[in-house]
Amino acid sequence: MAVVCVPQLAGLEVLLIRRAEREGDPWSGQMGLPGGHRESADQDLVETAIRETREELGFDLRSARALGMLEDLRPVIRPMAVRPYVFGLDERPRVVPGAEVSRVVWARLDVLARSTGTTEVFHHGEWRTMPCFRLGEDVVWGMTYRVLQPLVAAL
Questions:
Q1: CATH code for the domain defined by 2-153
Q2: Nearest-5° angle of CA 70, CA 4, CA 145?
Q3: Mind listing the pLDDT tens digit for each residue in 42-101?
Q4: What is the distance between the alpha carbons of residues 43 and 61, in angstroms, rounded to a whole number?
Q5: Rounded (10°) CA dihedral 54, 57, 62, 65
Q6: Which residue from 141, 130, 146 is spatially nearest to 82, judged by alpha carbons?
Q7: Helix, strand, or coil (residue 24)
Q8: What is d(CA 91, CA 121) in angstroms, rounded to the nearest whole number?
Q9: Cα 115 from Cα 24, distance rounded (Å)
Q10: Which pLDDT tens digit goes with each residue over 121-134?
Q11: Rounded-to-integer distance, Cα 101 and Cα 63, Å
């Protein structure tokens, strides 16, 4: 998973995506971060994050500054671990969303900090109240919220 950060005059921005609606995708239609499953050709998980970002958004992170990795997270719905890597770019790249992405949203971390709330989601067969960031019509919750929360809290 890639957390792509770009400094702007008003504050540090992070790149979010809305996943396309796809049958069988447990994250279908949700706000997320670029990323996906490691393939056998990937040398490591950093290469997976770079490849997935290129496939999903059409730009290459190989020239970006690798700023580090965040703690592994385990989604509730799948027996796997997700390792987020943070990349820094000097400016917003030209983004060309692929078939897995319905839209792209740039969000300032300070705006996320001021938009913390809760949302009701149907998750694992029942309605649950989950912490979230609210960005107008976009609601960031679940794994993406958990990835971004430490960055937002560090402000």
A1: 3.90.79.10
A2: 55
A3: 999 999 999 999 999 999 999 999 999 999 988 776 677 889 999 999 999 999 999 999
A4: 15
A5: -150
A6: 146
A7: coil
A8: 34
A9: 30
A10: 987 788 999 999 99
A11: 23
